[in-house]
Design brief:
Chain lengths: ~500, ~500
């Protein structure tokens, strides 16, 4: 019973919340807005981390670690950045607890242990990192610095949802320093493309690469590049961002270098990040009313094997075959779980693995042993077939590639069907009320119009796509001239 | 000049501090007591993490993630644990900053944004985790829970030193839940043995496995197992701990389960951890007056290749040979860095790689090309030889194993030579003043005597070794009867 999910058509938001908890991905904790990532959810995140980390290293980056805390005086140094994050900062003010004299067995903050300067729990690390880079950079020979950090950050959000928006979340943040503007811009674009490649090849999630408008930009950036995905309910989700920071942080922290010509200049910067929010995007791109659907490239177990037996003798015979089968699959780099728990029946196991999105399920019983077959079930299509155990490792290896591809194609088809060009405000509103998805429309380029449209429709400009064709038009709201279409949507 | 380290015999502590900074491992940050782990230092830590993570998974553990913050009311639930950590807690009291009306461009804590309940930045996660486990455990079928977390923790230490004692540090903390006392004790011992195996096989650092006395125990534990290493200056270093927590946390958080017989019982617990402190242990076990010495199993680059050339033509010819050589080495799973920077001379490169402890250095110049040879230098012994490039990958593969082994043997010889049995308090004091190291002595088993000895000599009981032989004796201080020797030392 506990396995019955709300249907997506009934209440998408409720479906999502239930799925995250029932599939054992994450749950709310005793700390407001902070989540516990459970082992199964964390195993998926680890697969994301491993691949991203590989891609960062392949593009010349190294990992490092910077402090969790940012002294207030550093935090406020880059004004726009500070303004952007000040309203959602967890602040450490004391460094000791003591016994509460009025309350036996309880503790209270020790009033004598007040910090001289408050410490902000990092909402992002530009400030502490650029303050550090100041000591590392003197000459062009010290550049570029290409560093990434895997870390937890805290943003005190008022309305939180598991994975999508939590007070504490896990992420990676790249922070690079360059001698020239061109090099920093190239880095910004490169990393946005790395994110897009990861999203498409590993998450099987099609994304649109683009640039944010001024009002949607990262606080302190000159330009924010992003990848935008479309969820099944027609809402957009920003899945990753890469910022060209210009010389803003170098100026705020006085980071200069001597170039090859012996002249002093401020250093150019980028930063880029993706977070556990990707888990939410993954779930909402592929899953169905029966639970999670995982692309094979990110599934902790790509194949689960469930034995069907009535007595020990049968189990022993099955187990013998399974051990050989498992080794054959593993030799093809396929991850396999043999679910031999004796505390659950096959039906309960089937339901659990379906809910948890294991891409392929093999069931094997006494009849199969006789016939040299197994029952092979696909999670994504919910189809089953009886296949010969002979050479099954090649078939499964192929099938996993097929599933990965088909999940991407299906999501891409859905996304492409949900990009609509509109040319009037009436159409725009009608579109948002019915089909949702991305709306491609002309906009006059002003923040005023953008804000007005947001106020009236809740839709925001998700991005100006890299591949947006240059085309004369009129702003759907003001009628003023426009040179290209931008993508609007309601967003997570 | 900046490369000249203080000699160890001159000032061991200064040597350590300089080495950590000059070898680019870590540095102090703008936040009191918090460090920045630089890319080279972090690459070593990543190698430690990867191997430990593999060992944890091989023993059935899964990773998960729990919140950074612990609400004060949960923090104080297990009294001894709370008492042990209350004095060094960073406390979040507010969740917002605002513009400071008295100070243009500055921020201040928003007095309206005071939290109803303060949040402690985790110094360790038993409280938040056991509060979570309560929701996960109903029956014996839910047990054991075998979870590990990689995380940052904060303990507000007054005197800090890079890696050895920092306010924020990185660690892993295992937290397991079991149906029986015996199973939890077995887990505690197993994980202490995993740590010992890692320390010896990967860090090439011999350790003594043992159990702590009551006064050295983890706050909230029934028993603390540990691995103790000996540094070159004769001081001991606790390198890892594994705690049997009994039912203390289960009782504090009311975590009961129904056993197979249908009866309710409290759950049994363990926790175990190692931290970035291991970096300090690694450095102080092997390094010398010229800098870091790294065991091959933890070296980010096991081999560095430095080209020696006077013109582009020579460089091109060398590079061609190096590319083939590098591939040959990599095919044997040897990590190789080709240091082809044109901004530094060979001498500067040699000095840097020596300082950073790269196990093997290959230098190759025009003469070598003619002769089909290279110069091969060992960091640990500082010896050099000319070797044929033909089949060098096998030689190097063997040599790396030899270095790993010899580093361990050398450290073990040193450690074994620095364990001294003493039978009187006079000898004990004399020993501490001269040779230092571990002192194996009889102790009457009381905390009083232990404290008195600490007060008089600064030496503490590091552990009661697993393999301590049962032997009648008299306490060196009180003369009271004792059944086995324990290990004393001054410690980090």
């Amino acid at each position: 019973m506990s396995k019955n999910l709300t249907k997506r058509t009934e209440d998408y938001s409720k479906w999502y919340n239930e799925l995250v908890v029932k599939a054992d991905l994450a749950e709310n904790s005793a700390v407001r807005g902070c989540m516990v990532i459970k082992p199964y959810g964390f195993a998926i995140w680890e697969k994301m981390q491993n691949e991203l980390d590989r891609m960062f290293k392949a593009t010349g980056h190294q990992n490092a670690y910077f402090p969790l805390f940012v002294p207030k005086s550093l935090f406020e140094a880059e004004e726009k950045n500070a303004e952007g994050f000040a309203k959602e900062c967890a602040v450490v003010t004391h460094y000791r607890l003591q016994n509460d004299p009025d309350n036996e067995g309880k503790l209270r903050v020790d009033p004598e242990a007040k910090l001289e300067e408050e410490l902000v729990v990092r909402p992002t690390s530009e400030a502490i990192i650029w303050n550090t880079y100041k000591g590392w950079i003197q000459s062009y020979r010290d550049l570029p610095i290409l560093i990434n950090q895997w870390a937890n950050v805290v943003r005190w959000e008022m309305r939180t949802r598991l994975f999508l928006r939590t007070a504490e979340f896990l992420w990676q943040e790249g922070h690079t320093a360059h001698a020239t503007e061109a090099e920093a811009i190239a880095e910004t674009e490169q990393m946005n493309k790395v994110y897009a490649k990861f999203a498409e090849n590993f998450m099987a999630m099609p994304v649109i690469k683009g640039v944010k408008t001024e009002s949607e930009r990262f606080a302190g950036a000159i330009d924010t590049h992003c990848i935008e995905a479309l969820m099944q309910d027609g809402k957009a989700l920003q899945a990753g961002t890469s910022h060209f920071l210009g010389q803003n942080f170098a100026k705020a922290f006085d980071v200069k270098f001597t170039n090859k010509e012996g002249k002093q200049d401020y250093v150019w910067a980028t930063s880029w990040g993706v977070s556990t929010r990707l888990m939410g995007a993954l779930i909402m791109t592929h899953s169905d009313d029966k639970g999670l659907v995982l692309p094979p490239n990110l599934a902790p177990n790509q194949v689960v094997i469930v034995p069907i037996f009535k007595n020990d003798e049968q189990f022993t015979a099955i187990k013998k075959v399974v051990i050989t089968l498992k080794l054959a699959l593993e030799s093809k780099n396929i991850s396999v779980k043999f679910d031999d728990r004796d505390t659950y029946r096959p039906g309960a196991k089937f339901a659990q693995h379906e809910l948890q999105g294991v891409p392929l399920r093999i069931a094997i019983g006494p009849k199969d042993l006789e016939n040299g077959t197994v029952e092979l079930a696909r999670r994504d299509t919910l189809t089953k077939e009886i296949v010969s155990i002979e050479g099954i490792e090649d078939k499964i290896s192929e099938l996993l590639k097929t599933i990965q591809e088909e999940l991407f194609n299906k999501a891409k088809r859905f996304r492409d069907e949900h990009i609509t060009e509109v040319d009037t405000f009436e159409e725009f509103k009608a579109q948002l009320e019915t089909k949702t998805g991305f709306i491609s429309a002309h906009w006059d380029g002003t923040a005023d119009t953008e804000n007005k449209l947001k106020e009236l429709t809740k839709a925001t400009i998700r991005c100006i796509p890299y591949d947006s064709k240059i085309e004369e038009g009129k702003c759907i709201y003001t009628g003023n001239p426009s040179k290209q279409r931008v993508l609007f949507a309601k967003a997570y």
